[in-house]
Amino acid sequence: MIDFALTPAETELRDRTAAFVRDEMIPRERDPRQDEHGPTEELRAELVAAARAANLLSPHVGTEYGGLGLDHRGKAIVFEEAGYSTLGPFALNIAAPDEGNMHLLEVVADADQKERFLRPIASGAARSMFTMTEPDGGAGSDPSMMKTEARQDGDDYVINGRKWLITGALGAEVAIVMARTFDADGTDVGATMFLTEADAPGIEVTEVLDTMDSNAPGGHSVIDFEDLRLPANSVLGEVGRGFRYAQVRLAPARLTHCMRWLGAARRCHDIATEYARTRQAFGKPLSEHEGVGFQLADNLVELHACRLMIWHCAWVLDQGDQARTESSMAKLYCSEALSRVVDRSLQILGGTGITDRTVVRKTYEDIRAFRIYDGPSEVHRWSLARQVVKG
Amino acid sequence: MIDFALTPAETELRDRTAAFVRDEMIPRERDPRQDEHGPTEELRAELVAAARAANLLSPHVGTEYGGLGLDHRGKAIVFEEAGYSTLGPFALNIAAPDEGNMHLLEVVADADQKERFLRPIASGAARSMFTMTEPDGGAGSDPSMMKTEARQDGDDYVINGRKWLITGALGAEVAIVMARTFDADGTDVGATMFLTEADAPGIEVTEVLDTMDSNAPGGHSVIDFEDLRLPANSVLGEVGRGFRYAQVRLAPARLTHCMRWLGAARRCHDIATEYARTRQAFGKPLSEHEGVGFQLADNLVELHACRLMIWHCAWVLDQGDQARTESSMAKLYCSEALSRVVDRSLQILGGTGITDRTVVRKTYEDIRAFRIYDGPSEVHRWSLARQVVKG
Amino acid sequence: MIDFALTPAETELRDRTAAFVRDEMIPRERDPRQDEHGPTEELRAELVAAARAANLLSPHVGTEYGGLGLDHRGKAIVFEEAGYSTLGPFALNIAAPDEGNMHLLEVVADADQKERFLRPIASGAARSMFTMTEPDGGAGSDPSMMKTEARQDGDDYVINGRKWLITGALGAEVAIVMARTFDADGTDVGATMFLTEADAPGIEVTEVLDTMDSNAPGGHSVIDFEDLRLPANSVLGEVGRGFRYAQVRLAPARLTHCMRWLGAARRCHDIATEYARTRQAFGKPLSEHEGVGFQLADNLVELHACRLMIWHCAWVLDQGDQARTESSMAKLYCSEALSRVVDRSLQILGGTGITDRTVVRKTYEDIRAFRIYDGPSEVHRWSLARQVVKG
Amino acid sequence: MIDFALTPAETELRDRTAAFVRDEMIPRERDPRQDEHGPTEELRAELVAAARAANLLSPHVGTEYGGLGLDHRGKAIVFEEAGYSTLGPFALNIAAPDEGNMHLLEVVADADQKERFLRPIASGAARSMFTMTEPDGGAGSDPSMMKTEARQDGDDYVINGRKWLITGALGAEVAIVMARTFDADGTDVGATMFLTEADAPGIEVTEVLDTMDSNAPGGHSVIDFEDLRLPANSVLGEVGRGFRYAQVRLAPARLTHCMRWLGAARRCHDIATEYARTRQAFGKPLSEHEGVGFQLADNLVELHACRLMIWHCAWVLDQGDQARTESSMAKLYCSEALSRVVDRSLQILGGTGITDRTVVRKTYEDIRAFRIYDGPSEVHRWSLARQVVKG
User: Fold this and answer.
1) Is the predicted pLDDT of residue A85 greater than 80, yes or no?
2) Shortest CA distance to C218 belongs to which of C374, C46, C40, C389?
């Protein structure tokens, strides 16, 4: 039955997260222990400790790994609140790519792999990276172009190739490596995912890219695999099923981006609203100028539409469906609508908007990539068009 | 608990309505018994009979008046399906203004008034009009400017004034009359609603306006009240509470517009999709041109967002809330997004789009007014801005 | 040298045209001698007579055929003014398709053809049609799909095929016929244009389409050619060069659409401005509401941008260039921007906007096709993209 | 007579500037002598020297001060080319605020002031600041709120107040100070502009703001005036005419922003075009995907519209008109359209777009402020609406 009511447990958790963010995160937003990529490890550890103390750590992970075992709807509620502060997702350990990696490991990894790789990430001790995207001419929007190769050599796989825009690589302890795989006979058996410690010989961060955003500890890097040798038990799931597992990770990971950005955009909207309430121009508060008020109204409507689309997609995922269409719609719509919300909020702030007086400026810079990663808008439109046409 | 599943009863009703529309309404869309305003009374009676036979008549009305007693969520589901054909709402007896008038009478009228006025409308026998809007300088977006006056004279009220854009006036049997009211002492006691037969002396349809739309039997008219004398039992509810009752009618009526237009826009989208699948240009089907496919994708996303916003607002109404903010958001968003959907659908059809080969052209003309009536977009943005600012 | 000043002669002509439109055309706009397609022949003759008396008839045609011999910039100035009234283009004899047909004949036809076909059109006595577009599966946006065939038979050509959306066919006296041509050996020698009286045996208007617009006398029709036999001297220019001549017609004809619609949209904007000045809402004139004022400001900017783009393209044409890129840009931008201007103007008028109280409603209906004919926006975007990419 | 042809001299200058930018500026764009605000003084001096060698220095300034004495149309042509590189405007000495300050001084300053203040700026030796904007509650979009005061004290003026977002303050040698002025009797005599060396006692840069852009050497600062004492000959023009002079500076300065940003956005478009030509996705170059090509087409059209609007406004200024309406239209349209061009260009680049691999990312960050400074879009819409309404 169509219902938009939160359960009492969800309401309690939402309010508790909101209070945690308000009381513990927002006051720390100007903590100097942040570099051009995000919080340093020292600050991150402190944030994680605070979330653990508030019983909010890794809420998306099963209780056996220290989380709260939230379903997708539960995540929608909590992640939005966490995203309200630039630091919230790091505290709750729900930032990309770790959040998606934990989800993937929880669904696909075997028991040993979970102990070795999932547990330290879920506890907030370790960070991880997901190495799929490649530089020009390799796997990007079109994953079929993947050039990185894993060649079976006895019981091992030897991996060579270059990845780029690998989020969080610098400082990560765990790596998920995606490579086109060739068996002992040299036959292409499809893409495979491998699990490894990130300091394995043959993995090198060759360049940390200078990017517009600053909400990814470790930044986005170029990674070279040079004769990275991994034993057979490094394979995540089964050989040749890498793209299928990528789908397992993809739709939910897309959606959690939407959730966090919804919170971040709502924050910008609230800041702009407060500014418009108090700042005078031409004889009355900004908020009484329709030119400003209409922007706030549009923000309200688009934030609302985003939330509904996220909730709906989360519900579809909770029914056990892959939600490919729904997550494409949510990602496409949220990335574009929330960008508009942040842009309007900045515009309302006037000159203040382009300074670091508020988090709006940082959010503006950070959110730009959202229309690109996890499938640029154009790829989602193309994919949705195919859904429409095939009916 | 957040849930988007229909109940089995809702699913059955949705499917039954869809089948009714597909099998009984769409084939009749070219029935010549339609004039520049919509179906003639003869055709309308036939449509109503068909819906009654399918047990789909007046589904929003309580069972004691022959309806199905649907709640707002139920209406959302059924009305969307009905709107899929230009004739569906007339068959189900859920077109404006009758649908909103029935809702108002059901909530506010006394037992006698219900027998006399609601029952014939609910049965599909009679049409009704709601006379609130006035020409330039009178009540429009700003109802406080109402000029029509009712003056108490003994036990009667004598009403004078001019209304315009009164939908369905020509041929209506029931009128709801809104007037600024003065008691026997000449004191302004606020706006009052009155109920009367439409052929009462003193009510005259002085002009049927030539308008762009053609989905309102009787069209939109100018009405003159000249010494219209109504007894005290004509008062709907209480004297002086007219604007409060207008609110009772307003939010749900707005929302049912959204529901019907959602169906109509989905129809246009389906027509455009089918055209894009089959029509070739530059060596491949139109649908394989991204420039067309992207428009279909945007349609899909916006139809989805509209449906979610409607369902959410319906749920709020079902909780007993007035849903003023939610219905403003839904009306603003749906009127603009669905207009875009229809516009894109027409564009995809190319030259065919501007002909009467499909219902897209009529829908394009009909939907334009939706951004104006029940509060133009600007008034909703202004009202929502106030909500945002007061927090 | 960059210059935006009109010459004294241009200024005089502009002002004279504006005065003619204001004094002679606008007062006639409600003349009942108009049907669902536009002015009847009786009214049209009267309008033409008025323009002739004002020395404004066929200003784009050479003086030897009774025109003013304006260059493209001169046309830009005069046609905008003429477009300010729905009747102006008919009076000046510059409406589509006649205007473009006259241009084509002036450039390509031989002396005999000019006497026989151009002179009566230029004098306003005869109307003409241009038969290129075909129904589904034939020549539309992609002219290479043309199915109508002309087969050489002795000295004659025998033409068979179906055209549709042929503007002005009903009542036209002259027809330009475009057909894929096969020589006596049955070899496809490319598309050819033929000139003929429209009442030649073998030309039949089989259906007058019911379309959204009403600014084309005779409407838009389906035309069947059944063994239409034309002698060799019917060939316009040379055999096989039909598409090249279509280009001759295309860019200027596109641009004159922009000119006329610029005037029409400016008219709507002026009507909305006047309404906003005088109509009160919420305690002040509409115009003092930023939500309305901002729309007027956007109108002003877009009208300005359209005019500049038209003037620029006209200048390029006047340099002897085909202006394919410039006319694509102008057509794409003007059709979309002017549609927005008209839409905003209608929105500002509120309920009045959808009635026939002003010409805004008719303009809204008429202008919709402008984003489709002479290349829909998507085809222009595709063509411009190719220009960009090839550099 | 409407003409869009460049004179031979303009063509030569345009081509020479383009060659200079291509050969001398673009190769230097990664010069490490740039900080978070822009080129260091060392690099800037080198750029200026290069422009002087190319005879392109300060082209907007009169020849008596070493410039080329270009009119506004000439500036439009040269500044667009200079803006094509992030370094071009610094080399040609046409960056804000110096360019506008030079223009102001040339028009208003007396001979002594020109020698002392204009000459060193025009030669590229000195930088300058224009101190008008104030922090919250002071002069911003609404200059009437100015709080900084100059009080006459004998022959001197003593100035107190706080300014903010003062571009280039750090390192500037010349300051133009705007203050509400009170004469010896304490009467408010209106705003006045004063000229002074920037190291005068009583001027302090109290904070260099951390802003999103990085194209203003010295950044944007908070400036405190504390008993800044200036002699009477410091007055620029006349006492009390500060706002009038601000208008002298405003329209042309707005327009030169448009010119430079046009070049910058065209650069981004060219980078995106080149990327789209070469990068493959889904089996063909990006450029052959309509979803990408259509964005390039829209870029082309909007760049064209911006150029025309700039040229037109420049021509109006060259006629001696203040061009308030035209410069508002140009600023509003260019700031919004060019932002879209840069945004689309970044989107086409995908992940590369958010890295420093191209200047698109920096341009995206830098251009955001353009919709805010020199009047945010909302103020221009409001001002244009007033023009429309008063007719």
Assistant:
1) yes
2) C40
A29 in reach of chain B (CB within 8 A): no
CA D380 to chain centre: 17
Domain boundary among A240, A275, A308: A240
Q: Are both A303 and A217 inside the same structural domain?
A: no
Nearest CB to D1 within list C5, C290, C381: C5
Q: Which residue of B has its CA nearest to D293?
A: B291
If you count residue pairs, one on A and one on D, with CB atoms under 8 Å apart, how many are there? 113
Tell me, yes or no, whether B255 and B299 share the same domain: yes
Provide the phi-psi class of B66: left if phi over 0, else alpha when psi is between -120 and 50, else beta.
left
How many CB atoms within 10 Å of residue D115? Answer: 12
Can you tell me the distance from the alpha carbon of B293 to that of A386, in angstroms, rounded to the nearest whole number? 8
| Helices (H) then strands (E): counts for chain A | 12, 9
Nearest partner of A315 among A72, A77, A70, A2, judged by Cα: A72
In which residue are the tokens 């020479």 written? D16
Domain count, chain D: 3
Nearest partner of D105 among D203, D195, D15, judged by Cα: D195
0.95 surpassed by complex ipTM: yes
pLDDT band of residue B137 (cuts 50, 70, 90) is: confident
- Domain membership of residue A2 (yes or no) is no
Q: What is the pLDDT of residues B25-61, one digit of tens each?
A: 999 999 999 999 999 999 999 999 999 999 999 999 9
Averaged over D142-148, what is the pLDDT? Answer: 86
- Smallest Cβ–Cβ distance between B350 and the set C141, C209, C346 belongs to C141
What pLDDT, on the 0 to 100 scale, is given for residue C137? 74
* Length reported for chain A: 391
Mean pLDDT of C208-223: 96
In a domain, B111, yes or no: no
Domain of C51, in residue numbers: 8-95
CB–CB of C384 and D304 under 8 A? no
Residues C27-42 have pLDDT tens digits of 999 999 999 999 999 9
Domain of A149: which CATH number? 2.40.110.10
> Does C134 touch chain B if contact means CB atoms closer than 8 Å?
no
| N- to C-terminal Cα separation, chain A | 26
Tell me the C-alpha to C-alpha distance, in Å, between residue B189 and each of A200, A304, B194, B239, B390: 84, 39, 14, 8, 29
Answer yes or no: do D370 and D257 share one domain: yes
Task: Answer whether C294 touches A (CB < 8 Å).
Answer: yes
Alpha carbons D171 and D217: distance in angstroms, whole number: 8
Mean pLDDT of chain C: 96
* pLDDT digit string, tens, across residues B177-233: 999 999 999 999 999 999 999 999 999 999 999 999 999 999 999 999 999 999 999
d(CA C116, CA C101): 14
